[in-house]
Amino acid sequence: MADFDILVIGAGSGGLAAAKQAASLGARVAIAESRTLGGTCVNRGCVPKKLLVNAAEFIHQQQVAASLQWVNPTGLLDWQRLQTAIAEHLQGIRQSQQESLQAANVHIVRGTARLLDAHQVEVAGQTLTAQHIVIAVGGAPTVPDMPGADCALTSPEMFQLSNRPNHLAIVGGGYIGVEFAHIFALLGTQVTLIDTDQQVLSGFDPVLREAAQAGLTRLGVEFIAEMTGKEIECQGEQYRLSLSGSDQSSQTVTTDAVLLAVGRSPKLSPLNLEAAGVKVEDGKIVVDDYGQTSQPSIYAVGDCVGRLPLTPVAIAEGQAVAQTICQQVTRMDYRWIPSAVFGMPPVATVGWSEPEAREQLGDDAVETVSQTFTPLKYSLMTDSPASVIKWVFNRQTQQVVGVHLAGDQAPEIIQGLLPALKQGINRQELAKIVAIHPTSAEELFSISPR
Length: 450
Description:
By secondary structure, the protein is α/β, with parallel strands linked by helices. It has 3 domains: 4-141 and 265-326, FAD/NAD(P)-binding domain (3-Layer(bba) Sandwich); 149-262, FAD/NAD(P)-binding domain (3-Layer(bba) Sandwich), CATH 3.50.50; 345-445, Enolase-like, domain 1 (2-Layer Sandwich). The protein has 11 helices and 23 strands. The strands form 6 sheets. Strands 1, 2, 3, 4, 5, 6 and 18 form a 7-stranded mixed β-sheet that branches. Strands 19-20-23-22-21 form a 5-stranded antiparallel β-sheet. Strands 10-9-8-14 form a 4-stranded parallel β-sheet, with helices on one face. Helix 3 (46-67) packs across helix 4 (79-103). The longest helix has 25 residues, at 79-103. The radius of gyration is 24 Å and the shape is globular. The chain starts with a strand and ends in a 19-residue tail after the last helix.
């Protein structure tokens, strides 16, 4: 008899969800983790980054208050105190997660897991057996192969800085690079952002890319387009970042710190996947629609399978796999999954972008409606950030196929649309909604029927 019904490798969002769900369905469950509980999201990603976003937004609120003619003494940022407060909050989350695993009778094994075969895993010198194995090891920042890359920071180190840099260069204009650019610009750091594209946030709808780019410009972020890092040289306490473009052009940036934000890759090297017959392609574990790998007894969820690198997706995948193993076959639905970039303004998206819709439906079958407005909150500011709403419709059915927001509270607003979107709401139904005034969300429903 196996030691466990299910052994989960990795105690990040996906692994924790799978373990708890399986335990609630009566399975004997163990979870192996070599680092702190919670994975990237809790310890080195979403949670500490959002806390930094909140801190930066308080500074922005001071500017808003000044525009409302408040007597507004400028507060000074205590970087060390902020870092301590964040660390204490994260420790509280980890403690809560450990207690919830213990309450669910999930056995916690500390150490790096290594597969021996389809049912045996070696962890910290002991061999554990399980009828099923769930791999949820997540990902890690991708470090480009260039001279001096070891001198640079990646996203986890951004939460461990002893001091706020006066000048920060960021290589990569994806959501990680854009969020850190906004955070540190608001905190008073001079920021230079470098990307291989003409605008940030490649893959997002064009209206959101424009809004994010404008927000960076408003904060004084220097943007260097169509270039990437070539070499980093350490010069005392400063760094010389050499850049190169596809047209053979070159440029250098001298800075106090360099952040490499060029993507993330699955952490597969310690797993010994070959011994268990688990197929890997392009550095990612191959799974079917139900999270099952090429080895029937082994499943994988989250960033290591490379579908959608989002915490809620990893959680949902973990729960679905646990259901499939313990109760009934459950398939994940990826159609209406929202995402957001917490910049200034924040942007949020769900469904297809306009280019994606045209690819899926054809140019003649796509209709878009966009509007720009100034939220009441910013109406007294001389340089007020505009909010943007863009609907993407199927021209024939008038059903919504994508929604894209940029502006105050965009991530919070867009989530309320999800049940209606999943039910196929159309333009005529949207126009009948009676909203709350005065709010930014009411602008969603100011659309006229076709």
